[in-house]
Write a structure and sequence with these properties.
The complex is a heterodimer of chains A (471) and B (488). With 471 residues, chain A is of the alpha+beta class. Chain A has helices spanning 53-65, 157-173, 214-233, 279-288, 293-303, 308-315, 318-328, 334-347, 352-357, 364-375, 381-394, 404-408, 412-425, 427-434, 440-451, 458-470; strands at residues 3-14, 69-70, 73-74, 77-80, 90-93, 100-106, 112-122, 126-130, 133-137, 144-150, 186-196, 206-211, 241-246, 251-257, 267-268, 275-276. The chains are: A alpha+beta (471), B alpha/beta (488). Chain A: Heterotrimer of A, B and C subunits.
C-alpha cells in the first residue's frame, strides 16, 4: 500500500524590532550574558509588561503579507510552565484570540498552504552549560516572536522546504525578520503523520521540535515518514507524542507522550489590556508595506518585459528588486538592466547573504545613465558591458570611461567610408562571399566593428557591406 | 471645616518652623522603635533614608524653597511595595534578603515629594490573609487593644497609622486589605478605582484585583495622598488617565445625594456593627442625603468568584519564586528540580500554599470551564449589577467588615470561616470600584467599626466628599485617638 505524507508547521520567527516585546532592552543577537536585561525582562517582583507597539505592527505586516485576517480585537494570555530560562514562570503569548487568522502561502505548484493563525509572544532566555554548572542568560528573554501555524496542508518534503523558503522570503521582504535559521531567528516544529493514499482521515501525528535547518528538517521528515509507515505496516500504532531529531544518527526519538504533555493553564494576562487594531491602523500599516513579492513578480514580467525566470531572480531579494526598479524605470531597454544585474553583478556576489546585502559599487542611478546611452544608440551592448565592469571596479560613473569618440555616434557617411575601406582591405573574403560563402561577410564585419570600436550598428554595417560587394 | 487632617497639621508645624523635620522624624523613629515591640507594625525601620530626607526638607525650609504637600511627612509603605535599595519581602521567608533595584511608581512619586519613609510595614504573607498573622514576622497588633489583630493584609500600615507611628501609609487592597485593617484599627482606608493608581512595583498577588491606596487618620489626609499617587503611569498598561483629584471636592454640599443600601450586605452582620451602621445612615439623613434601600442578589457570588479568580492569578504570579535569581534558596538539594521544589516548600507559608494549590487547580485542564471560566462570567454579572445600582444611587453604604477586630489566632483555626469575613469588601475589587472605610463608632467590645462607602468607577471626588461630610458631622462620636506613639 502507498502512503501519503501529511505535514503541518509551527514556525517561530524572531521579529527584528529594535527593542524587546515588553521593555525597552535591545534585541540584538549575542552580547555578554545578561547585558540586554532590565527588571522587566528578568521578571523581578512587581514589574509589569508594557507592549511594544512595533511588535504589533510587524506582526500585522506578517499577517497581511500572508493573506491573513487581522483581528480587530485580540489579547495576550499567560502560558504557565516552570523552567529556569523563563523568569516569570509563564510566557506571555496568545492563546484563543490571536492577532492574525486564516491566511495562506502559495507554492509554485499552485497549491495554497493555509495558515491557521499568527500570534505574538515573548522568547525565553537560554541555559548555558559549563563545566558541570548551568547558567542562565536572559538576553534573549523577551525578544518578540511570531508563531505561524499552518493547517496540515503540506504533502511532501519539497513542499515543506518551499513553504519555509517562501515564508523566509516574504518576511525578509517586508523587513520584519532576518529569518536566519542558523542563528535561531526562525525555527520550526514539524507535525508529521501518514495515511494510505486515498484515505480522507488523518493519521496520528508526531511533533518534531525545534528544527533549525532545512536539510535536517528534510532528513527528520523522511525518517519520521518511514518510521510511521513501518509501524502501521507491522500492525502497530503511531502514538501522539513530541519527538526530537538527533543530528548525529539522523533519527527522531520520543521526548514525551500526550499523557505527559504539559498543562499550561492558559488564562488571560491581567497585566495587559486588549490589543485593538482599527481599520485605519491596518490600512496605514498596509500602506507602509513594500509590494507583495508575488505581485511584484507579475508586474516585473508585464511592465519590464522580463522573462519570468529573470524576474524571479530579481525579486528574491528586496534590495535587488528595488535596485532594478530604480535603474530600469524610464529605460527603453529594461532587459539590458536585468542582464547587467543578473550577469555581471551576480558574478561578483558569491553567496545568498551577499546577494541579500547587495553591496555593489554602482548606484542604480549610475546604471540607469549607462542604459540611457544604450537606449539613445550612442553606445552598443558590448561597450555597456566593458564600461560597467570598470564602473563596478571603481564606483565611478560611466562618463569617466567613455571617450568623446565613443559617445559621438556614427554618421551614415562615416559608416559607408569605413565599410568601403574594409571591403577593399579584404578582397579575398569579398570574393568568397560573392561565390556564395555567406560566412565570409562576418570576417569583414569584424574588421568594421574593430575599426569603429564597436560603435557601428552591426545589422546596418552588414547590409552595407553586402551592397558594396555586390555593386 | 474641622481640622482632622494630620498631614496639613504637620505641614503647618514644619512651615512655621515650630519643629524641624529632623526632630519630628527622630520622634517618629524613636516611637516606632519602642512601640514596635508591642504592635509589630514595622518589619524594617529605615532611619538612614528617613533622616536624609528630613535633612533635605530642613534645608529647603531654611532656604525658603517651596515644599510639596507631602514633604517631610513621616509615612510607611506596606512591604509589598518595591523600594530601591531597601529590602522588600512581602513578609515571606521566600523573599528574605531580596532588595529591589528599582522603585515602585508610587514610592517614586512620594520620594520626589520628600515624604519621609519611617519603615516598611508588616503584612500577611504576599497579602494573603485577613489578620496580618500569616506574616513570617508574626502579625501586627491592634493599637486599640493588643490582644486583637490589626487586620489584614495591610495590618502593619493600619497599626502604624492608628498607633501614631506614621502619619499615613500606603497599603494594597486585593479583597479588602486596605479597608478591613482600617476598619479594625478605627482609621480611614481608601481602595481606589482599579487603574487609578499605578501598580508598577507592587509585588503582585492577584493582578486584576490589586490596587494601592492610602491608609490615613482622616478623609482629608486620604484625599491628599490619593491626589498625589493617582497618576497615569505608562509603566502600568492597566493604569488610566481618568482619575480626578479629590481634595478640591471636599466640603461640597451632599443634600439630595442618594445613598444606596443593598440589604444582602447586612446578612450575617453582627448586631452591634449593624447598629453603628444604622447610626451612620441617620447622620447622612440629617445631612440631607436620601437613603435608598435596594437588593443586589448577585452579591452572593462574590466570595467564590473572588477566591477562584484571585487564587488563579496568584498561582501564576507566585510561580517565579524558585530560588534561582533572588530571595531565599534551600540549603541542600541534589538537582535543579529538587532545589526549586524545596525552596518553595520551605519558603511559602500554609496560607500561600493553599491559595497556590487552589489557583492551580481551577486553571487546570478539565476544571477551567467549571471554575475559572464560570467565575469570569459571574465577575461580569457583578460588574453589571453595580452599574445598575449606580444608575439609581450616587454611593452605596455598607459595613466594611461584618464584625470588629478578631482576637489573636482566630484566623488560624478555620480558613473558610475567615474567608467569609471578606464578604463585604471583595465585591468592590471584583468590579474594580473605589471603596473607602471610615470609622463609624464602636462595637460591644469597644473595638472600632467601619462604614464602607462604594462609588462608581473614578468617582473618588464625590466618594471622598461623602466620607468627608460624614466625618465632619460625626467624628467626635465615632473616632477615638490612641494615646501612644507621636501625639501632636
Amino acid at each position: 500500500m502507498n502512503y501519503e505524507l501529511i505535514c503541518g508547521l509551527e514556525t517561530h520567527v524572531e521579529l527584528s524590532t529594535k527593542t524587546k516585546i515588553f521593555c525597552s532592552c535591545s534585541t540584538e543577537f549575542g552580547g555578554e550574558p545578561n547585558t540586554h536585561c532590565c527588571p522587566i525582562c528578568i521578571g523581578l517582583p512587581g514589574t509589569l509588561p508594557k507592549l511594544n507597539k512595533a511588535v504589533v505592527e510587524y506582526a500585522v505586516m506578517a499577517g497581511l503579507a500572508t493573506n491573513c485576517e487581522i483581528s480587530p480585537v485580540s489579547k495576550m494570555d499567560r502560558k504557565n510552565y516552570v523552567y529556569p530560562d523563563l523568569p516569570k514562570a509563564y510566557q506571555i503569548s496568545q492563546y484563543d484570540m490571536p492577532l492574525c487568522k486564516s491566511g495562506w502561502v502559495g507554492l509554485s505548484n499552485g497549491r495554497r498552504i493555509r495558515l491557521n493563525r499568527i500570534h505574538i509572544e515573548e522568547d525565553a532566555g537560554k541555559l548555558v552549560h559549563d563545566r558541570g554548572n548551568t547558567f542562565v542568560d536572559y538576553n534573549r528573554g523577551g525578544v518578540p516572536l511570531i508563531e505561524i501555524v499552518t493547517e496540515p496542508d503540506l504533502r511532501s518534503i519539497e513542499e515543506v522546504q518551499e513553504y519555509v523558503e517562501k515564508l523566509q522570503m516574504i518576511l525578509r521582504y517586508i523587513g520584519v525578520s532576518d529569518c536566519k535559521m542558523q542563528e535561531g531567528s526562525l525555527r520550526c516544529d514539524v507535525n508529521v503523520s501518514v495515511r494510505p493514499v486515498g484515505q480522507e482521515e488523518f493519521g496520528t501525528r508526531a511533533e518534531i521540535k525545534n528544527m533549525n535547518s532545512l536539510a535536517y528538517m528534510a532528513k527528520a521528515i523522511a525518517y519520521e515518514f518511514d518510521r510511521q509507515v513501518d509501524l502501521i505496516q507491522s500492525g502497530e500504532e503511531v502514538v501522539q507524542e513530541t519527538r526530537r531529531f538527533d543530528e548525529g544518527s539522523g533519527c527522531t526519538e520520543g521526548m514525551r507522550g500526550k499523557e505527559d504533555a504539559d498543562d499550561y493553564r492558559y488564562f488571560r494576562e491581567p497585566d495587559l489590556v486588549a490589543i485593538l487594531v482599527s481599520d485605519e491602523m491596518r490600512k496605514s500599516i498596509q500602506k507602509q508595506m513594500p509590494e507583495d513579492p508575488q505581485k511584484r513578480l507579475t508586474r516585473f514580467v508585464s511592465d519590464f518585459d522580463l522573462p519570468e525566470a529573470d524576474a524571479r531572480l530579481l525579486i528574491e531579494h528586496r534590495r535587488i528588486a528595488d535596485y532594478f526598479e530604480t535603474a530600469a524605470k524610464g529605460a527603453k531597454n529594461p532587459r539590458a538592466v536585468a542582464n547587467c544585474i543578473l550577469g555581471q553583478m551576480f558574478a561578483r556576489l558569491g553567496t545568498e547573504a551577499e546577494k541579500e546585502q547587495f553591496e555593489v559599487a554602482v548606484t542604480p542611478e549610475q546604471l540607469h545613465e549607462l542604459i540611457l546611452l544604450l537606449d539613445s544608440g550612442k553606445i552598443r551592448m558590448n561597450l555597456v558591458k566593458s564600461t560597467l565592469e570598470k564602473m563596478l571596479d571603481t564606483g565611478k560613473p560611466a562618463k569617466e570611461f567613455l571617450s568623446e569618440q565613443d559617445l559621438a555616434g556614427m554618421s551614415a557617411d562615416d559608416l559607408k567610408a569605413v565599410c568601403e575601406k574594409a571591403v577593399a582591405e579584404n578582397e579575398a573574403a569579398a570574393a568568397d562571399y560573392l561565390a556564395g560563402k555567406e560566412k565570409a561577410l562576418k570576417a569583414i564585419l569584424g574588421s568594421v566593428m574593430k575599426a569603429t570600436r564597436g560603435r557601428a550598428n552591426p545589422q546596418e554595417a552588414e547590409k552595407l557591406l553586402a551592397d558594396i560587394i555586390r555593386r | 471645616m474641622e481640622p482632622y487632617g494630620i498631614i496639613p497639621k504637620i505641614g503647618k508645624l514644619l512651615r512655621s518652623k515650630e519643629i524641624s523635620c529632623t526632630e519630628l522624624t527622630k520622634q517618629y523613629l524613636h516611637s516606632a522603635e519602642t512601640e514596635n515591640k508591642r504592635l509589630n507594625a514595622y518589619v524594617k525601620l529605615t532611619p538612614e533614608a528617613a533622616l536624609k530626607t528630613a535633612a533635605e526638607v530642613d534645608r529647603k525650609l531654611a532656604a525658603g524653597e517651596e515644599l510639596s504637600p507631602l514633604a517631610g511627612i513621616p509615612m510607611t509603605l506596606k512591604d509589598n511595595i518595591s523600594t530601591n535599595g531597601i529590602e522588600t519581602t512581602c513578609c515571606s521567608k521566600i523573599l528574605r534578603g531580596y532588595t529591589p533595584i528599582y522603585d515602585a511608581t508610587v514610592w517614586d512619586i512620594l520620594k520626589r515629594q520628600d515624604a519621609v519613609l519611617i519603615g516598611k510595614a508588616n503584612m500577611d504573607e504576599f497579602a494573603m490573609g485577613s489578620s496580618c498573622e500569616t506574616s513570617c514576622f508574626g502579625g501586627a497588633r491592634n493599637p486599640h487593644n493588643t490582644e486583637r489583630v490589626a487586620g489584614g493584609s495591610s495590618g502593619g500600615v493600619a497599626s502604624a497609622v492608628a498607633g501614631n507611628l506614621a502619619a499615613f501609609g500606603l497599603g494594597s487592597d486585593t479583597g479588602g486589605s486596605i479597608r478591613q485593617p482600617a476598619s479594625f484599627c478605627g482609621i480611614v482606608g481608601l481602595k481606589p478605582t482599579y487603574g487609578a493608581v499605578s501598580r508598577y512595583g507592587l509585588i503582585a498577588y492577584a493582578s486584576s484585583f490589586d490596587q494601592i491606596g492610602p491608609i490615613t487618620r482622616s478623609v482629608e489626609d486620604a484625599a491628599l495622598v490619593y491626589d498625589a499617587i493617582a497618576k497615569y503611569d505608562p509603566m502600568d498598561s492597566t493604569s488610566s488617565e481618568k482619575a480626578q483629584p479629590a481634595f478640591s471636592s471636599l466640603g461640597k454640599d451632599i443634600k439630595g445625594m442618594k445613598i444606596g443600601v443593598p440589604k444582602e450586605y447586612f446578612d450575617g452582620v453582627r448586631e452591634d456593627v449593624k447598629a453603628a451602621l444604622q447610626n451612620a445612615l441617620k447622620v447622612y439623613e440629617s445631612l440631607g442625603a436620601e437613603i435608598v434601600d435596594f437588593s443586589m442578589p448577585s452579591i452572593q457570588y462574590s466570595l467564590p468568584v473572588y477566591y477562584i479568580l484571585a487564587c488563579a492569578e496568584a498561582s501564576s504570579n507566585l510561580g517565579r519564586y524558585d530560588g534561582i535569581r533572588y530571595g531565599a534558596r534551600t540549603e541542600h538539594y541534589a538537582d535543579r528540580d529538587e532545589m526549586i521544589c524545596k525552596t518553595r516548600s520551605e519558603g511559602f507559608g500554609a496560607e500561600v500554599k493553599r491559595r497556590i494549590l487552589l489557583g492551580t487547580y481551577v486553571l487546570s485542564a478539565g476544571y477551567y470551564d467549571a471554575f475559572y471560566k464560570k467565575a469570569q462570567n459571574l465577575r461580569g454579572t457583578l460588574i453589571r449589577a453595580f452599574e445598575d445600582a449606580f444608575a439609581h444611587c450616587d454611593v452605596i453604604a455598607v459595613p466594611t467588615v461584618p464584625m470588629t477586630a478578631f482576637p489573636l489566632n482566630f484566623t488560624a483555626q478555620d480558613a473558610v470561616e475567615t474567608y467569609l469575613t471578606d464578604i463585604c469588601t471583595v465585591p468592590v475589587n471584583i468590579a474594580g470600584l473605589p471603596g473607602i472605610s471610615v470609622p463609624c463608632g464602636f462595637g460591644g467590645d469597644s473595638m472600632p467599626v467601619g462604614l464602607q462607602l462604594i462609588g462608581a468607577r473614578f468617582s473618588e471626588p464625590a466618594l471622598l466628599n461623602a466620607a468627608f461630610q460624614y466625618e465632619q458631622a460625626a467624628r467626635r462620636d465615632v473616632f477615638r485617638a490612641v494615646e501612644t506613639g507621636v501625639v501632636l
